[in-house]
Design brief:
about 325 residues, MetI-like fold, mainly alpha, 14 helices, globular
Length: about 325
C-alpha cells in the first residue's frame, strides 16, 4: 500500500508542475491591455508617485512577464510555492486573504449540497436498478435525465421565478435580508440559511442526475454477476443480497465520483453563486476574470488544479481500500 501511495503522490506532483506551467502560459499570452489598464488605474489614484509606464514595468516584473515564459514561470512558481500570489487587482487585497474571506460560504454550500446529493441519488439509483423496467425505474430515469439536461442558469432562474417571485418564500439575491442587522445572532444565522436554500437546491438538482444514473448502471452490472445469483440460490433474503453483497461492490466505481467531488466543496459554484449574488469563491472568481484580475485568476486556477489532483489521489486511495487488487498496479 505504501509503494502504491508513493507512486500516486509522485505522479500528482509531476502533473502539478505541468498544469501550473499551462496556467502561467495562458496568463502570459493574454493581451497586454489588462496590465496597461491596471497600471493606468494605479497611476491615477490619489497619492500615486509613479507613472503608468512605471506601473506597467513593476507589474510585469512582479509576475515575471518580462522574463519570457519559462523564466517567468520559474519566478512565479517560486513565489507560489511560498504562498505569495500577490495582491488582487480588482479586490485590492491579497488573493489569499480574499480566498479566506469567501471560502467558508462556498464550502458550506458545497458540503450541504454534496450530502443531499448522496442521500438522494444513490438510494434512487439502487431502487431503479432493483426494479428495472418498472414505472419506478422509468420515473427515476426521467427525473435523472431532467437533472442532467437542465443548465445551471436555467434551473436557478426557474427556482427564483417560482419560489422567489411567485410564492415569495425566499429572497432571490444576496446573503442577508432587509432586517438582518436587527435580528439576534441566531436569527441572523437563520436568515443566512434562508438565503442559501435556493442556491443549494439548484446545486442538488443539477448534480443528482449523473450520480443517480451512474449508480443504477453499476448496480445493474453487479446484480447480473454470478456471485449474486449464487447468493440468491442459497436462500439469502433480497435485503441481504442487495445491502451486503451487491451494494458493497457497487461502491468501487462510485468512489471516482465521490473523490472527484472534492474540488466542488472548496472552489465554489461559479454560475450559481453569481446568479444568486452569493459572495463565495465562485462569485469572486467570476468578477475577477471579467475584470482582468490576473493575480486572482492565476491563483484560482492553481487552487482548482490542486483540488482536482487531490481529489484524484483520494479516489485512487479509496480504490485501493475497497478493492485490494488495485494496489498491485
Amino acid at each position: 500500500m505504501g509503494e502504491f501511495l508513493l507512486k500516486r503522490i509522485l505522479l500528482c506532483i509531476l502533473i502539478f508542475f505541468f498544469v501550473m506551467l499551462i496556467i502561467y502560459a495562458l496568463m502570459y499570452s493574454l493581451p497586454t491591455s489588462y496590465v496597461e489598464q491596471m497600471a493606468r488605474e494605479l497611476a491615477t489614484k490619489p497619492g500615486s508617485l509613479k507613472s503608468a509606464s512605471e506601473w506597467i514595468a513593476e507589474l510585469n516584473a512582479s509576475y515575471g512577464f518580462d522574463r519570457g515564459i519559462l523564466g517567468g514561470y520559474m519566478h512565479w512558481l517560486g513565489s507560489a510555492l511560498k504562498g505569495e500570489f500577490g495582491e488582487s487587482w480588482y479586490w485590492t487585497v491579497p488573493v489569499t486573504e480574499k480566498l479566506g474571506d469567501t471560502i467558508g460560504i462556498s464550502f458550506a454550500m458545497g458540503a450541504v449540497s454534496f450530502i443531499f446529493e448522496i442521500l438522494i441519488a444513490i438510494p434512487l439509483g439502487v431502487l431503479a436498478a432493483r426494479r428495472q423496467y418498472t414505472m419506478t425505474d422509468y420515473a427515476v430515469t426521467v427525473f435523472g435525465l431532467i437533472g442532467i439536461s437542465m443548465p445551471t442558469f436555467f434551473t436557478a432562474t426557474l427556482y427564483k421565478l417560482f419560489f422567489g417571485v411567485k410564492l415569495q418564500w425566499f429572497d432571490i439575491m444576496g446573503m442577508q435580508g432587509r432586517d438582518y442587522h436587527t435580528l439576534s445572532s441566531f436569527g441572523q444565522f437563520l436568515d443566512r440559511c434562508d438565503h442559501l436554500v435556493l442556491p443549494i437546491l439548484t446545486l442538488v438538482t443539477v448534480s443528482i442526475g449523473s450520480l443517480m444514473r451512474y449508480t443504477r448502471t453499476n448496480m445493474l452490472e453487479v446484480l447480473s454477476a454470478d456471485y449474486i445469483r449464487t447468493a440468491r440460490a442459497k436462500g439469502l433474503s433480497e435485503r441481504v443480497v442487495i445491502n451486503r453483497h451487491a451494494f458493497r461492490n457497487t461502491m468501487v466505481p462510485l468512489v471516482t465520483i465521490l473523490g472527484g467531488s472534492l474540488p466542488g466543496l472548496f472552489s465554489g459554484a461559479l454560475i450559481t453563486e453569481t446568479i444568486f449574488a452569493i459572495r463565495g469563491v465562485g462569485f469572486c472568481s467570476y468578477h475577477s476574470m471579467v475584470n482582468g484580475d490576473i493575480p486572482f485568476t492565476m491563483f484560482y486556477l492553481s487552487f482548482i488544479s490542486i483540488l482536482t489532483l487531490l481529489g484524484n489521489l483520494i479516489s485512487d486511495v479509496l480504490y485501493a481500500v475497497v478493492d485490494p487488487r488495485v494496489r498491485v498496479h
